[in-house]
Amino acid sequence: MKALITAPGNTAIVTDTDVPEPATNEILVQIHSLGLNPIDPLYTAHPAAPPGRVVGSDIAGTVKKIGEGVTSWRVGDRVAGFLQGATSANYRPGGFAEFAILEADLAIHIPDSVTFEQAATVPLCSLTAAQALFIRLGIDAPFPNPLKREEQLARPPNILIYSASTSVGLLAIELARSSHTPAGLPYRIFATANIKNHAKLLAAGVEAVFDYRSETWPEDVSRASGGISYALDCISEEDSTAKISQTFIKSGGIIAVVRKTAWHKDGVRDDVTPIYSAVWSGLGHEITYNGGSIPASPSWRAFTVEFFRFLSAGSTSNPSRFPIKPIPVRLMPGGLESIVQDAFVLLGVGKVINRSTDEERRSEPWMKPVSGEKLVYHVYD
C-alpha cells in the first residue's frame, strides 16, 4: 500500500509498505478521507523517532477486514478514528495511508448523512475538546463519564473558549452546548476569535464573542460574563493563557491548555491553574512523548470508548447525523502525494502566530490561510 512515511531530512515521502493485518479486537480500515492536524507537520519537521514512521492521525473509511473477537463491526461498515502516528518515540501506528488499523472499540460509526470528508474532521479534535471539558474542567458530560468527579463546587456556568474558530474550539462549542450543569442549567459560552468568524460563532450558540486582538478583550469578557468559571485555551501560546486567567471569577479556577510549554507562565493568576494533557492518553497505551513517558491509562481509554459511543449513536433528534457538527471541510486537491507540499506548508511547524502572512502565501486558491475549517484529502474513492 501507499503511505506517507517520515524520511531523512525531517520530511515525509509517499512510499510502498505492507498492508497491516488486524490482530485480535482490531479492524482493518480502507481509508477514503483523512484530516490534517497541526501535529502532523510538527512531528515530521521535529521527529520523535528515526525515519520510517507512518504520519497522520484522523481517518475515515470502510471496514475491509475484521480481526479475531470482533463482533461489533462488519466488512463494509463506515468508520472513523484516529491514530498516534509519528508523534511518539515508541512505535505507534499512523493513519496517512491507503489502509490503517483501528482497535474495534475505538472506532466511530459514521452516521448515514455524514460524508467521509466530514467524518475525518471529527475524531482527534473532538476528543481533545471532550477531555478538556469533561475531564480537566470537570463539567458534566452528555454521556457516561468514567472520570466524573463525585463532587463539584457550585460555580457560575460561564465558559470561555479562546480561539474558538479552531477545530478544537468549534467542537468544544458543540459539546458545551450539549451539556448542562448539575442543576440543569445550560452553560453560557463566551469566545474569542478573528472578527471575520464572529457571525459564525454567534450562529453556533456562543453568547458573545470578542476580538482577541483587542487590548481590552479580557476586561470585556469579564464584564459581559460576570467572571469566567471554566476556560479552554485552544492556542496556548505566548501570553494567551495569562490573559485568559484575568477573566476568571474571584475564586479562580482551571484553564485547559492544548500545549505543554508554548505559553508563558508569567502573568497567570495565582488562583488559576493551567492543566495540560496529551490526547493520546485516550488511546490507552504508554506514550514516550515530548521527552517523557506517559503510562497507559485504562480510565482515560474507557472515557474515549464512551465518548466514541456517544458520537456513534448520532443525534437524538436525527440519528443520521453526529450529535455534534463536523468541522467545515476544505477539500484539498491531490492525495497523499500533495500533503507535504501543500497542507504542511499551510499549517506550518511552529506556533500559530508564526504562520505565513497573506503576502508570503502561494497563489493557488486552496492555499489561502486556514481559518474555521479542516484540511481534508481523498485517499480512495
UniProtKB/TrEMBL annotation:
Residue ranges constituting the Enoyl reductase (ER) domain according to the UniProt record: 9-353
Pfam families cross-referenced by the UniProt entry: ADH_N
InterPro entries: ADH-like_N, ER, GroES-like_sf, NAD(P)-bd_dom_sf, Trans-enoyl_RdTase-like
GO molecular function: oxidoreductase activity, acting on NAD(P)H
Superkingdom: Eukaryota
Record-linked PANTHER family: HYPOTHETICAL OXIDOREDUCTASE (EUROFUNG), ZINC BINDING OXIDOREDUCTASE, PUTATIVE-RELATED
Protein name per UniProt: Chaperonin 10-like protein
